[in-house]
Amino acid sequence: VHAGLGELLRSLSNSTARNVTWKLGSRLYGPSSVSFADDFVRSSKQHYNCEHSKINFRDKRSALQSINEWAAQTTDGKLPEVTKDVERTDGALLVNAMFFKPHWDEKFHHKMVDNRGFMVTRSYTVGVMMMHRTGLYNYYDDEKEKLQIVEMPLAHKLSSLIILMPHHVEPL
Question: Where does the Serpin domain lie (predicted)?
């Protein structure tokens, strides 16, 4: 399973072959009092390109700075701040930073943007600027799994953005 997922990540991360901009990184932070098993460190690096780093969570400011600097570096400055707070813990923290910029097969018109509701939870919606367009796309409504699937081709149809939309907002 891990080898297959690792190969999928490597394939998807090939920005040139897929004609997308995608910066992805993972880092596992832990205090110096925590030792990760050697097999875990090796496997997570090999399959998921996950780095490991020691951090002092008790010094929140330094921990935040370290995490956010790593994310900014990983995404070429596109994500200068992945978190605003970090809990004081004796455990570990897994951080994933991802910047994705598709090069669309059919571009969105710059005027087709407006403020719409994004449901964070069933009871909490925030307004965010969203692009929208009308077109013909591969679409599937899975009644059994209670979700809709839409495929939007990216430039030169080398890859696609596949969006899974649940029928209802469910807590994780």
Answer: 1-171
pTM over 0.85: no
- CATH 1.10.275.10 fits domain 113-166: no
Rounded Cα distance between 133 and 126, Å, is 21
Which tens digits make up the pLDDT trace of 79-137? 999 998 888 778 899 999 988 888 878 888 888 899 999 887 778 889 999 988 888 99
Which tokens sit at 78? Answer: 């596109």
Query: Is residue 115 a contact partner of residue 129, using CB atoms and an 8 Å limit?
Result: yes
- Among 3.30.70.1290, 3.90.180.10, 3.30.420.10, 3.30.497.10, name the CATH number for the domain at 1-101: 3.30.497.10
Hey, which bits of 12-64 come out as E strands? 21-30, 50-54
Supply 5's token pair.
């997922």
